[in-house]
Predict the 3D structure of the following.
Amino acid sequence: MTCSLWSCAQDKTKLSYDYDKIGGHPRLLLKQGDEEVIRASLQRNPEFQRIDTYIRQVSEELFDEPTLVFKKEGKRLLAISRRALTRLYYLSYSYRMTGDTRYLQRAEDELKAVCAFESWNPSHFLDVGEMAMGVAIAYDWLYDGLTDDTRKLVRQAIIEKAFKPSYVSGDNLFLTRHNNWNPVCNGGLVYAALAIFEDEKEQATAIIERALESTKLPLETYAPDGNYPEGPGYWNYGTTFQVMFFAALESALGSELGLSNAPGFNSSAYYMLYAVGPSGYYFNYYDGGRAVAPSSALFWFAEKEQDPALIYQEIPLIRKGGYTKKINSDEHRFLPNALVFGKNLTLSEIKPPSGNTYTGHGMTPISIVRTNWKDGEGKYLGIKGGRAGDPHGHMDQGTFVYDVGKFRWAMDFGLQSYITLESEGVDLWNMSQNSQRWDIFRYNNLNHNTLTINNQRHNVEGKSEIIETYDKGRELGAKVDLTPALNLNNELKRATRKAVIVDESFLKIEDSIETNTDPVDLRWNMVTPASAEIMSKNTIRLSQQGKDMILTVDSEVPFKLTIRPSENPREYKSEFGNYKYGDYNQHNKGTVMVGFDSTVPTNTTVKYTVTLIESL
């Protein structure tokens, strides 16, 4: 059902809810009286006390800061919108938990400042979504304490700066997107609609009804198993807003209409549980960094699934200060979620997860092995398939990461800041085969933990699938079909990669290559933060912080080991052609790439076996 601004609100027979039953203020996330439940939770959970204290400290520090001003970075107002969401959520929480009117007054000052902005930058509608959510939470949570003039100002701003632009063609492309733009923008709009509902019933109803239909699109991307196409960092972004959307519907209207039962959505919490290795880093791929951030949405899933083990990895992160670091992290603006969604939990009673493998198919297939759930212990393997041409994609099909305890031995460079590339005029968002995107050092296949043939790019349209999994016995891992990614001109009959942890002891990578009528040159590459030294014709020693790892290569055809530099890309020539990488490429300090080069003869099947074994 698609609604115009007025039609859905006028035809009550087509509405999803009986909106006359909407709850009173506060109706978003935390109802009146729930403060007492949180206070009880703080008493039994010292980890939550730490978060509560941090939120209060940040709120106190705002008294010495000026209110936010309209300031874009390039085409984005997003940094200001996120700061507004943080400030308004923190201050509103602090007021509700303490009753201290200083927090109320400071939040009201911030509301008046952002609602007086010339716009919330609808040409980049993420900025509107985040701003609208922050404004809505403060309006709803502080409703009884706000002046009539402030309430009126907020309602006018929501209508003019959020609702109306969301009907402008070109600005509202989020309505038909499957990626994180959809839940961020729709989520913010729904919060705004629920917050001012009694004063703007028709417009608010139309916004909510439209969002209920539109939000089905991003939910499709979780199918069938829950692994998020764009990686764990973007899961934190898109899924947190999706959870916020559902939680607001539940608190204000009594139900999210079963939308969370979409195939794979609830399972995505298990994907995130496995996404963090014992090194404390994500299995990062595509436009994702490896640094782990708070995943406060997991507290909602733990309650929804009645499985407290889903937040098992969040507990040590809180204890180590990962939730309360003084950094400009996107996820920190949602810290109150942990206390709101986790208020019924007792963290000291939570037991480790029972499984040791996770596999997800769908848009970006991945498989993960974790041999031990104790913090900083065990071995960890992640391998992926997918398609370079997908949103935020890299040419990293077949890439893997490998941890032993607290050390990551096989790593991914991760994304480079978009602004550093856009400001240099790089054609970053063109995903076509010959786009400048693939000249970025961190984005192409030459510099990922994967295979390259004939020094050519991966096929952006070729999707690599997981074709076998190993979840019992001596070997734990998966096999990926790399043929679609490696073949640009039918150079290969078949190419597969099998990555397994053997006997919970060492990593084994088996690559099988079958050629057609011409020989092919093969490049095997692995990025590592360790120093590297070639020890013999088939072994490389990797060393970091007093630990050694021996990489051994075995094959029936000749190969030559190589160590490739990676710290300063602008000094290197790209094997795609006789040109240097652009000056816009950022440094990769403390890294090197190891591997080998080989030629696979005509009409031949060749297997290459690489092992990584700890040197005791």
Notes: The radius of gyration is 26 Å. Confidence is low (pLDDT under 50) at residues 1-10. The CA atoms of residues 229 and 363 lie 6 Å apart.
